[in-house]
Amino acid sequence: MNNRSEPPVTVLMPVYNAGEYLRASIEGILGQAYDNFEYLIINDGSTDDSGDIVNSYNDPRIRFIENESNLGMIATLNKGLEISSHDLIARQDADDISHPERLGRQVAFMSSNENVALLGSLAKEMDENGRPIYEARFAKPSGSTGVKWYFLFDNPFVHTSVMYRKHIILNEYGGYKLSDWCGDYDLWSRVAEKYAVAVLPEYLIKYRVHTSSLIGSLDFNSKKKEISKTENITIIKRNLDALFGKDIFSESDAKALRLFVEGVDETNCAEFMGVFDTVLSRYKNVYPESLESASFRKTIASQQSMVAYRTLTKDRLGALRLFARAITLNPGIIFSLPIVRITILMLFGDCGRALFQRLKRFTLR
């Protein structure tokens, strides 16, 4: 489809040692139905065959830049922002895959909603072999009140799914700050204080979780994990202050909310849910329209059911109460719960997790 009358887009993709997955990512962009874009690929000092793979493509939309040394994700993204040709920027990671309609859907939304500075989409996780991942993970919200709410816990945007306006992100906010792991969460939080942001309720990205990805690397590097945790708590506290007023909630409250991503278990569930319920009550006062939002109720119910799932093997009664709260708030959530897995965990406790993993490996053979 020729879209030369539509706004041009820069697809910005840093690459660092992504050779194993790079072709699938590149071909996902080159195969977009919306074709009015430049594909700005920046090789950040890769030591594998990433550069050769990019050079093997003879497509005039590809603009290939090579850093003289490894600058890191944040510096490379900011460099890409500065040299990009167009105002609409679509992010893409070198190991992820975009749906063929991704750019078209996002451009259409941004063109119809000029007040929106930042747009994401829903995403599906896959492992290093491209298999879907499901571990009772929380589906990030798409409704406006749910997105604002989730900023109080974590980044509501999957970075590789976003499209944004360069003149706002670069010229007004100076691009990305902080580390590779929290630079996007920090930036989106600051943007959302002033501008409208949105998430399309469509799965337009498949993103890969593996040991060398930014997400996966946090699980294997305690120093990176600690940096990420500290920065996230700082951002959550700032978001609480921006929404409710300075110091209405403490740093301890921010640490408690961070547990949603870090890991709620039977030892800290009461602390987390106490702060969760207090913040939720205030949030409803600030955004009374959230009470009428089916999307928001789904977000809250999903959070409650995820906490219930995490505490199920050690506190069955408490977990069942949380599941009941979630189902009362959003009855439809029962159809998305992993009933077989929950039943196994209810019956066998921690041993049930090992049993389920064995069953899963058997079915994948």
Describe the structure.
It is a single chain. The protein is of the alpha/beta class and 365 residues long. The chain has two domains: 9-218, Alpha-Beta Complex (Spore Coat Polysaccharide Biosynthesis Protein SpsA, Chain A); 286-364, no CATH class. The chain has 15 helices and eight strands. An eight-stranded mixed beta sheet has the order 3-2-1-4-7-6-8-5, sandwiched between helices.
Distinctive features:
about 375 residues, Spore Coat Polysaccharide Biosynthesis Protein SpsA, Chain A, 2 domains, eight-stranded mixed sheet
Summarize the structure.
By secondary structure, the protein is of the alpha/beta class. It has helices at residues 19-30, 50-55, 73-83, 102-112, 144-150, 166-169, 183-192, 214-218, 222-244, 251-262, 269-286, 294-311, 316-329, 339-348, 350-364; strands at residues 9-15, 37-43, 62-66, 88-91, 97-98, 116-126, 163-165, 196-208. The chain folds into two domains: 9-218, Spore Coat Polysaccharide Biosynthesis Protein SpsA, Chain A (Alpha-Beta Complex), CATH 3.90.550; 286-364, no CATH class.
Shape: globular
Low-confidence stretches: none
Global structural class: alpha/beta
CATH architecture of the largest domain: Alpha-Beta Complex
